[in-house]
Design goal:
The protein is α/β, with parallel strands linked by helices. It is about 50% helix and about 15% strand. It has an eight-stranded mixed β-sheet, with helices on both faces. Helix 5 runs parallel beside helix 8 and helix 9 runs antiparallel to helix 10. It is elongated and about 90 Å long. The two termini are about 20 Å apart. It binds uridine-5'-diphosphate and magnesium ion. Uridine-5'-diphosphate binds next to strand 1 and helix 3.
């Protein structure tokens, strides 16, 4: 019996890209004759006709399955839903916009067959076609998070990844609500081979990531994979206690020596403002972790499925 490969595709407003995507994947599936395939399109609460498009494809080709969410839950939720419905011996995740070239799949398959390899991941070596300011901040983010987190998070890594069943099962065991896949892949461990490719621009439609969304996503990544910010907050507290102590000593000595002329109002205000600011910042950091904990303990489902043609 042939081994089954599941292709998981998160789709949010991708009605324009999907036909191109299917054509490309079809070519690859026709080349890889030694495997059976299933395509799991996860409609992440799209506002356009993505679901209809998926239904059309699935009528045409019984290997195309779909899951449709009740609203937009985000790409991470879509990935989770796709992984949990995938039945394949191997599972691969791809974006619907062809920025993850399906033509790399045969090469990835070859790699994963090698002894002891559990996943084959991809990273783009260029960020061609991306606004320079976005690339700059992306690079800064990866530098920072790798300094403050024990889990390795690779710069330029895409979510395009081929995994063995064992790897997928381990990922599914991490049932946390705040999912930051790029970190989860590293956290589960195993042996990963990297394949590099040049950035490709999306085939149709628009990116769903605004600068603000990316910024929030990076904060999420840091909060999910590092507690160093909390440590820095505590450290700043200690530092300020020491400074305050020195300053108090200085004031006492000065008063004893020179009496107590009423002056120094500007410096008092500066100190109050500075310390007030730092206090608020530290409370904010604390709040960020608390908020994530709050969402986590509610144990809400990661996604809600409205329609699907996959039988459980
Ligand atoms: N996506 C999703 N839910 C979202 C946002 C994006 O499922 O809320 C999907 C989208 O359809 C695409 C993939 O995630 O297949 C990557 O999104 P996009 O191409 O917009 O991101 P970029 O490639 O610009 O980083
Ligand atoms: Mg894209």
């Amino acid at each position: 019996m042939k081994e089954l490969v599941s292709i998981v595709v998160p789709c949010y407003n991708e009605e324009q890209s999907l036909p191109y995507f299917y054509d490309e994947v079809l070519k690859v599936m026709n080349v890889m004759k030694d495997y059976d395939f299933e395509i799991i399109g996860v409609d992440d609460g799209s506002k356009d006709n993505t679901l209809d498009e998926l239904m059309v494809l699935s009528n045409k080709d019984h290997r195309v399955k779909y899951i449709s969410f009740s609203r937009n839950f985000g790409k991470e939720a879509a990935i989770y839903a796709g992984l949990s419905h995938a039945k394949g011996d191997y599972v691969v995740m791809m974006d619907a916009d062809l920025q993850d070239p399906p033509s790399l799949l045969p090469e990835m398959m070859e790699e994963i067959q090698k002894e002891g390899i559990d996943s084959v991941a991809t990273r783009r070596v260029t960020r061609k076609g991306e606004p320079p300011i976005r690339s700059f901040f992306a690079r800064m983010f990866y530098k920072l998070i790798n300094k403050i987190s024990k889990t390795e998070i690779v710069d330029g890594a895409r979510d395009y990844r081929l995994m063995t069943r064992q790897f997928v099962n381990s990922l599914l065991e991490l049932s946390e609500y705040n999912r930051f896949s790029k970190g989860l892949f590293g956290w589960v461990g195993y042996n990963t081979t990297w394949i590099e490719f040049e950035n490709v621009e999306r085939i149709a439609g628009e990116t769903k990531w605004s600068f603000w969304k990316l910024f929030k996503y990076s904060i999420e990544g840091i909060v999910a994979f590092s507690t160093v910010p909390l440590f820095i907050a505590a450290l700043t507290g200690i530092l300020f206690c020491i400074l305050a102590f020195v300053f108090i000593m200085f004031i006492i000595v000065r008063t004893l020596l020179f009496g107590d002329p009423v002056s120094g109002w500007p410096s008092t205000i500066c100190i109050i403002l500075l310390i007030g600011g730092i206090q608020l910042l530290c409370i904010g950091i604390l709040g960020e972790y608390l908020a994530k904990t709050y969402l986590e303990v509610k144990h809400r489902p990661i996604y809600i499925c409205k329609t699907t043609n996959i039988d459980q």
